[in-house]
User: What shape does this take?
Amino acid sequence: MKTVLITGSAKGIGAATAALFADYGYNVVINYNTSKAEALALCEKIKAGGHNAIAVKADVSKREDAEFLFSEAKKAFGKINILVNNAGIAQQKLFTDITEQDYDRMFDCNTKSVFNCCQLALPDMIHNKKGRIINISSMWGIAGASCEVHYSASKAAVIGITKALAREVAPSGITVNCIAPGVIDTSMNKDFDEETIQALKEETPVGRLGTPEEIAKAVLFFASEESGFITGQVLGIDGGFI
Assistant: This one.
């Protein structure tokens, strides 16, 4: 039975991905940092459905925490077949108001976490000559967003990691792909008022926000055997926004 480790999977896209992989028979490693209640509830729901899951607290921007996460995952399930780098934060701020601390935290959470987890997942994948890594970026990592320069830059870096690492590990039978979601209906939009949400819907050609489940289905495809000849790609799921 294959095992998937999903960072930042207590809520939103990560939680939808965890639930979908469980439905397809994967062992699921749920990772959280602050959302303990949600992570434990998701874990219990998956297990109640007859599937295997564990929930592990770890701030994956910190190497020691990431190492603990992988250690617990291996104790439970033996090896990690699929890594989904989903953990991340967002912040809206004028560029001139972004502090050094804001910038460093954004890159730690959104980019260093990907570096840490990829490095920890790869030795076993290389040994086994097989593996899947799926990174969650953002459409703003492609197009750039006003008042989100540090966020856009950190997500663009995730795309750069994806493309370069895909070339490096392809000879070992490992694929590395990226998804760039548009505006998705998750708690990350909780600071937007209804007028802003409506404007975002209107700016999206399909006329609505995306759902976490729509992103999860794309992650599942990239994790599948059918995607074996696809690597280093960035899939925009944004309703035609960009």
Observations:
- Strands lie at 3-6, 27-32, 53-57, 82-85, 131-136, 174-181, 234-237.
- The CA atoms of residues 35 and 188 lie 13 Å apart.
- The chain has a mean pLDDT of 97.
- The chain has one domain: 3-237.
